[in-house]
Design a protein that fits this description.
The chain has a two-stranded antiparallel ribbon with strand order 1-2. Helix 1 crosses helix 4 and helix 3 runs antiparallel to helix 4. The chain is globular. It is mainly alpha-helical. It has one domain. It is built from four helices and two strands.
């Protein structure tokens, strides 16, 4: 069985390289999105139930919290380990996209 993540520490690998090599997918109301499609999402929910970066990040954070729950709900994805690291890496990618888009928004507002 191949690992969900690379054995190289995240500090040594660009998270976007990791995401593309491991074909990360992100669950949204519209279905699964690949890493490149994150850049097309709005930062926040427009109230129409469509996907947003904030919603994707909140979903990943919720999944991580659930992993730390005292009751193990899956024998396929046991608590912690590889699955937890996989979710952490996905959340890091989403946070990086959010940070970049926020910086672009800030730069555009100060230049106008």
């Amino acid at each position: 069985m191949t690992s969900l993540i690379t054995t190289v520490p995240a500090t040594d690998v660009n998270i976007f390289e990791l995401a593309s090599r491991r074909k990360f997918r992100y669950d949204t109301p519209a279905g699964q999105l690949c890493t490149e499609q994150l850049w097309d999402l709005p930062l926040e929910d427009a109230g129409d139930g469509a996907a947003s970066l904030d919603a994707v990040a909140l979903s990943l954070a919720s999944q991580l919290r659930d992993l730390k729950a005292p009751v193990q709900e899956s024998f396929v994805h046991p608590l912690g380990g590889d699955w937890e690291t996989y979710l952490v890496r996905k959340l890091e990618v989403v946070r990086a996209v959010i940070a970049c888009l926020l910086a672009e928004r800030q730069a555009a507002s100060t230049s106008s």
